[in-house]
Structure formats: C-alpha cells, structure tokens
Design brief:
Elements (H helix, E strand, L loop, with lengths): L10 H15 L12 H4 L1 H31 L6 H32 L16 H18 L5 H13 L2 H8 L20 E3 L16 E6 L9 H8 L1 E5 L19 E5 L11 E3 L4 E3 L6 E3 L5 E4 L8 E2 L1 E3 L5 E3 L16
Antiparallel strand pairs: 1-2, 2-3, 3-4, 4-9, 5-6, 6-7, 7-8, 10-11
Helix pairs in contact: 3-4, 3-6
Bound molecules: FE2/S2 (inorganic) cluster (FES).
Length: about 350
C-alpha cells in the first residue's frame, strides 16, 4: 500500500503529502503593524474627536427630549393628524436617542480609545492570581477608555445613558390602567346599521355577493363629535358572505348570520392588529402581524398562530329596508386577551 506497481505514489498518498506540505508552509502571520491614528499623534485632533463624541451624546439627549415633547406636548384630539404628529415626534426622538449613543460610543472607540491588538491566552480562570489579573485587566480597560481623563465625554455619556431609558418607562406607563369595561362595550347595539368604512354608507344585504368582504363601521360612528378614533378602534368589523351551508354555527348562534353573511371583529385577539386579509377560497382570515389564522367556517376559531381566542362575532340581521343591522353589541370583549376578562 502506498505505491503503484510502477513505484509512483497512490493518489491518497499524493493528497496526504500535498496537505502536509500546505501545513508546513503555513506560518502565523502575527499581528499587523500598528498604525497610529491622527488623534494618537495630534492633540488637536484628539480634542476634536472628543468634541465630536460629546456632540453625538448631546444629540442623544436632544432625541430623548424630542420624545418627551411629542409624548407630553402634543394633545391628541381624535384626529389622525395629531396622532401622526405625535408618532413622528416619538419616532424621531427615539431614533436620535439611540443613534446618538451608538454612534458616539463607536466613534469614541475608533478615534480615541487605544487600538493596539492584544493576544490573550486561553486558560481556566480559577486561581486568586487569575482573579487579580482579571481585575487588573478591567482596570486597564477603564483606564484606556480615558473616561477618567475626559470629563466632557464622561458627563455627556452619563446624561445620554440616564435619559435614554426614560421613553421606555413612559411607554410602559401606557400599559395601564386595566381596560376595565372599555373593551366590553362598543358602539354596536340593536338596530345599528352596518356601514362601509370610511364613508359610512349603509350596506344592503342584497349588495353582499358570495365571496365578497367589506370593512365595516357602525353607521353612527361618523356622527360622533368626540372619541371617534377610540370608538372606531373597538367597533371595526369584517363582513363576508359564504354559502350558508359552509357555516357551522354552535348552539345559540344559529341566527347570528344572515343568509351566509357573517360579521366578526377585525381586531386580532393576539395583540390587536387589524385582521385584514380574507382568503376567499379557504374561508380563512389572516392577521398580517404574526400570521394568526382564523377559520370563518368554524366561528373564527384560531387554526394557526399565536392568538388563543376566536374573533368575537357580531350578531347581525336585516331591517325592514333590507339594510344589515346589528342584533346587539358583541357578546364578549373585543381585542387582545387580557387578564380579568371573566
Ligand atoms: S396581532 Fe394578530 S397575530 Fe399578533
């Protein structure tokens, strides 16, 4: 084994030899030569970089302040314009707050902190000697960052880092108070006409063809003077028409549909996105946020995704003029699941 009959090496030998030679040829290239940066040799350039880093931290502070101006300063008045204005302030504020800190730290590290390469041996960190060495390394790092020598950077960094989490605290505050009865009642009531969103024109049952879907609001919504956005957010409904034989109503719900026309809350029971996609062939409703899928033929039972409750159904019928109307409000709270539902 190893040679052909004519004395030439077998191919496996040739490969092994070639690989061995490659290993022999490989040499540790070592660390690249250290190149000094402008700030390493020119104190003015170092000062300039220090100011740039401080400015980036100040931009972060300004970003946080912009967030609070939007959060506390913009009064929401039931119009989309104020909502958009506030969201613009919040978005720009958080973006500047995070970008300022991030780019400031990166610039600081690249321009001012020592950038010499260090090779560290790997071994277990057990002995007291190792522990002291580790502490020494941390001390060296703190020392090398220059944070003690550069109070301008230190102070602006402290300001930026102290302020940056405050928007999150403000947003968490909005998780309360508990919804209480707010999600239990909507504008729907007996005789309330179903109308098209957004123009509010009422819908005749005869106009709803099999396979069609409508985005629906209560007819009285557009007449509201206050709280329109909130009421709309709770009352939006999807209306679809199927073959009546495709529906499988449970006991007590047999008359909640009219001639195959069914109405379900459009607010996803996961975290409240609008369920806006209707798959006509499969009779599935899809939430675009996290792909929860609801089966219309099974009273919008969840068949896929993170939602755990079916979409609440709105019982409907027609009035004397043939317009679709609600029989009552929803029989359960709409929207995401929350504690204290029972
Ligand atoms: S909000 Fe609908 S799946 Fe998450």
């Amino acid at each position: 084994m190893g040679n052909h009959s004519d004395g030439t090496p077998t191919s496996s030998d040739a490969v092994a030899k070639a690989g061995h030679d490659e290993v022999d040829k490989f040499q540790d290239p070592g660390l690249p030569p250290h190149r000094l940066r402008l700030a390493d040799t020119d104190p003015k350039a170092a000062k300039r970089a220090e100011h740039q880093v401080a400015w980036l931290f100040i931009i972060s502070i300004v970003g946080t302040l912009i967030f609070f101006v939007g959060y506390f300063g913009v009064r929401l008045d039931d119009t989309l314009d104020t909502l958009r204005l506030q969201n613009t302030f919040l978005g720009i504020g958080v973006a500047f707050a995070m970008l300022g800190i991030g780019t400031g730290i990166v610039h600081w590290a690249r321009a001012l902190m020592p950038d010499h390469e260090v090779a560290e041996e790997r071994h277990e960190l057990r002995s007291e000697e190792d522990r002291l060495a580790a502490i020494q390394i941390i001390d060296d790092i703190v020392d090398e960052t220059g944070i003690k020598r550069r109070p301008l950077i230190r102070n602006t960094l402290i300001g930026a880092v102290a302020l940056a989490p405050l928007p999150a605290i403000a947003i968490f505050r909005d998780l309360g108070p508990l919804p209480g009865n707010a999600l239990r009642h909507t504008l729907w009531k007996e005789g309330e006409r179903l109308s098209r969103d957004p123009d509010g024109t009422p819908i005749r049952a005869a106009d709803v063809t099999i396979g069609s879907a409508f985005h629906v609001i209560p007819e009285s919504l557009n007449k509201l003077e206050h709280g329109k956005l909130n009421e709309k957010a709770k009352a939006v409904v999807l209306l679809m028409r199927l073959n009546p034989e495709d529906l499988n109503p449970s006991e007590g719900r047999e008359d909640w549909a009219y001639n195959g026309i069914v109405a379900y809350s459009k607010i996803c029971t996961h975290v409240g996105c609008p369920v806006a996609l209707y798959e006509q062939q499969t009779h599935h409703l899809l939430c675009p946020c996290h792909q929860s899928t609801f089966d219309l033929t099974q009273e919008c039972k969840v068949i896929f995704g993170p939602a755990v409750r079916p979409l609440p159904q709105l019982p409907i019928t027609v009035d004397a003029e043939g317009y679709l109307v609600a029989q009552s409000d929803f029989h359960e709270p709409v929207g995401p699941s929350f504690w204290e539902r029972g």
